[in-house]
Amino acid sequence: MNARSHRTPEPLTPHLLLPLDRSPTPNGTDPITLWPWRLRREAIRSPHQGANRSGKMHEARHPAAAPDDTSQTNGSSTQPMTVADVMTRDVVCVSTATPVSEVANILAGKRISAVPVVGVDGRLVGIVSESDLIRRAEIGTERRRSWWRKVFTDIEAEAADYVRAHGRKAQHVMKPRVVTATEQMTLADVADLMEKHRLKRLPVVRRDILVGIVSRSDLIKALARHRPRLFAEPHTDDAILRDLMNRVKAVTPSHQLINASVHRGNADIAGLVDSAAEREAILVAVENTPGIRSIQDRMILRPRSVS
Length: 307
Known about the structure:
Elements: E1 15-17, E2 33-35, H1 37-45, H2 83-86, E3 94-95, H3 100-110, E4 114-118, E5 124-129, H4 147-152, H5 155-166, H6 170-173, H7 187-197, E6 201-206, E7 209-215, H8 216-225, H9 237-251, E8 258-263, E9 266-273, H10 276-287, E10 294-301
Parallel strand pairs: 3-4, 9-10
Antiparallel strand pairs: 1-2, 4-5, 6-7, 8-9
Helix pairs in contact: 9-10
């Protein structure tokens, strides 16, 4: 055979390499295997994959691909995300002596809805939001009360309203009582606080020192980055069905009236439900079950008794 008619990416010069799974015999009777350089390099890197007595390489075993950082096996993160994972660390803040006009310029220029107020030692002392600046004398929006309301209005409250409308510094318009978060708090805790206090953002403190801020937009960005987790190994229909039923039990107390089966990842759901909302919750739970390819919905609404 003509050597020019056979092209190979391997080096033309073979390299001598003794079998790696045993030592050469001193009498020289042990055969010497000729390996190309690529195979020799792989054998050096993986000494347990040396040549056997027939001169063939042991088959390399490739481990199953491990799930990435955003993977999940049951539809929810094994370790919940914390504030430190999503918060903004480069926080725009002002001091108590910052003029109100400059605070307004920061909110408008940076397109943010609030700015923390810190002391000289970096401690959080308050926050100024858009709602604190809508009642201002400069634009004629200060709060106006009728004469009879002034009679019944608390003097202290009236004075506070005047300071907020006419004050020249951030300390005059800021809210001194601030709902804060810590770096270790979960995003679920943050969402609870935002919903409870109707807030759009929470300053993040470490021993009263401002270290960041977490906002609703940060939670939305975390949701946008989320990717469904992949299986390291394919699940069987029985395993998928068990996971599916556990999810159904978590969303409805009437799970005993639900019959489900899984064949090659295709789910068939039947049974009685009390409402369309319950039916939708079950379907969402099934959709979030890893391994499900399609859903056959055969659930029906339970008939209501007529009195």
